[in-house]
Amino acid sequence: MRPGPQALNSCPVCHGCHFGCCERAAQQPVPRDNSREASSKAAVNRHLGAIAEEAPRTFPRAPLSNQPPFWLLLALLEGEVHLPVSCLPLNHPFLPIALSSIRSKMEYFCSMLLISINFLHSEAFHDNGTASHNETTTDPPRENGQPSHLLTSVLILILVFIILIILAGYFFRFRRHRKAVVNSTDKKMPNGILEEQEQQRVMLLRQSPSGPRKYFPIPVELLEDEIRIRAADDGKLFREEFNSLPPGYLQGSLEMANKEENREKNRYPNILPYDHSRVTLMQIDGFQCSDYINASYIDGYKEKNKFIAAQGPKQDTVNDFWRMVWEQKSATIVMLTNVKERKEDKCFQYWPDQGCWTYGSIRVSVEDCIVLVDYTIRKFCIQPQVSDGCKAPRLVTQLHFTSWPDFGVPFTPIGMLKFLKKVKSLNPAHAGPIVVHCSAGVGRTGTFIVIDAMIDMMHTEQKVDVFEFVSRIRSQRPQMVQTDMQYSFIYQALLEYYLYGDTELDVSSLEKHLQQSNSTTPNLVKIGLEEEFKKLTNVRIMKENMRTGNLPANMKKARVIQIIPYDFNRVILSMKRGQEYTDYINASFIDGYRQKDYFIATQGPLPHTVEDFWRMVWEWKCHTIVMLTEVLEREQEKCFQYWLSEGSVSYGEITIDIKNDLLVDSISIRDFLITHNQEKQSRVIRQFHFHGWPEIGIPTEGKGMIDLIAAVQKQQQQTGNHPITVHCSAGAGRTGTFIALSNILERVKAEGLLDVFQAVKSLRLQRPHMVQTLEQYEFCYKVVQDFIDIFSDYANFK
């Protein structure tokens, strides 16, 4: 039984606890200070000392009936004494004083603990007071303290639960504060196969007040894992790494850039070159500060001053820009912005569209211009106009990357890597620095320079050190690589290069490549076509970008449910008034060799989607349709016949009249007159129906496909470069093969180069399952080889 009222009053500290510490405490001297606070503290201290001696011996023998409802040991962090809180009854007036001694070391949750215990203390005191009062009344007596004990027990259970939650929260908070551990929870490989590896972890060093966080070089064989770790949690670690880079304007003075005479020469007031690394022009007599231009020398991986990073020329600095190109003996200009983006001026057009123009003392004439899907190549002849005679002209090549979006970074690094390779191949060995500019000359410019340097490092050291290199070039020009998106894009480009390498071939080496691919000799380094095709399975199908096609109303419009267009490049129709989902058709825009959205890849129309098919042809002004399947194959409908063999037929507002049907070799050429009844306008459409593709497998020879591609290109030249509609049954296998071959052969004719792997990989990033089988992939190589063999002047490609 618990002690009665008399026993409770026997000790001024514990009121007679079961440890027997009161007797020990009573033997210790009491201070003469009569103040209540001093007496209380002294009593508590004597009591704690007694507990320290008696608790280890007494606690094990304490009878169960004498134990309080709970036991909770709190460490007195200021010493080594452990205070059993239960030894102080809940109504003890000095309990808050004892507990408050540990408040300073127990952080924020101690406040809640003390509040809770104070609450219990007050409740128990109230109950005991009520019980004492009831003993003096005429009410029937009750057992000593039973209601109080019941309330206390319930509250204590709640308190213990709260304390456990608080302690757990404190524990995890402490762990996070000490180190950040990122577990790779995305265990899916790009091809959707579960990765059978242990979770990867990356430990982050704590931020040091003396310097930025240090990130170490990454061996190339670990690059994929490291990027997966950094990209987890929406790229959290990429952002942390980027934010650990040294900030701008800590590496040198900006005296020249801030001079009053030069301020108008800066496109942006916060992007200025350091004095120690700025490009200095030759001074023009009579013009103060004429040696200034907003441009900086930037080192490459090993080569000092390999680049000049410059802002995009302004109208009043274009003369200085060309003066810099001449004085620095630069032969290559890399332009990474468009003249206008989002209707804003990003860079003054510093070259003439055709003919020649004089900028200050430099005459610039256009010699050639080649427009490709991702970039444009312009060749200029520049020559200074001087009074003492003409200097010899020089050839300068400008490579203008046009696929950088207005926001963010390119969707895939494939185009940038092809562009970078072209820059390297066209820049003469002994020329001056490569001039690289975007608008400000730091963001895209820095990204390009870092990718170039890290690929060189990858070849030399089999590792990359993006963090260190960006830190280094920021000491030459502030804010190089401006955003965390650009920073992560660098890693994506490096991973793309490491995984797939350089798969580009010269046409003269194609035959040798095919011989090695088909060789079974173990001593040869074999990169077989089968291995190439297997790598294409790494192109992940982005189901998160198929939301529109996966709507129930639109799923009914799919011939094969696995082949759905991506939202970012799906063909959008005009919405019919009052009818939902009528803007959807299973069709995707696909880039050509020279032009974006040059093709529309779609499935063979279904009976209930044929109206949408003709609406698409009309609204997107298509003049050419390529059909690569038969209406029936193996007694199964592969494509609804969306025209009549004779006469006319109407689908919605569009009427189709067949005007001509001619069979040439394995190609049916049909001309349709289509009329939009509401708009009262007509247009002639030509359909090329290829019959040379058997029900199973691939065409027996490549000549038929070569003739088909040539006929389609001729039709496009006559009707304008509107999208070409290409379809088979599902709009992926044969459709992808035709589009891939069109792009590959176009490049072979223009450059004498081919890259079947990257051509197909690019298609798969735009529509799932393009070039569906290994047989179709091998057919692409066969057609290219046939194309070279057919033309007697193929040596021009070498």
Q: Please, what is the average pLDDT?
A: 81
- In helices, the fraction of residues equals 25-40%
The spatial strand order of the largest sheet comes to 6-7-8-16-9-15-14-13-12
Overall radius of gyration? 40 Å
Largest sheet: 9 strands, mixed
Overall spatial form:
globular
**Alpha-beta classification:** alpha+beta
Helical element count?
Answer: 20
What is the terminal-to-terminal distance? 105 Å
Number of strands: 30
Percent range for β-strand residues: 15-25%
Uncertain segments are 1-26, 30-38, 51-117, 123-145, 177-210, 522-526
Summarize the structure in words.
Residues 238-497, 529-787 form the Tyrosine-protein phosphatase domain. Its EC number is 3.1.3.48. Monomer. Isoform 2: Homodimer. Can form oligomers. Dimerization is increased by oxidative stress and decreased by EGFR. Isoform 2 interacts with GRB2. It is an enzyme of class 3 (hydrolase). This protein has 798 residues and is α+β, with helices and mostly antiparallel strands. It has a nine-stranded mixed beta sheet with strand order 6-7-8-16-9-15-14-13-12, with helices on both faces. It has a nine-stranded mixed beta sheet with strand order 19-20-21-29-22-28-27-26-25, with helices on both faces. Strands 1-2 form a two-stranded antiparallel ribbon. The protein is globular, with a radius of gyration of 40 Å. The relative contact order is 0.06.
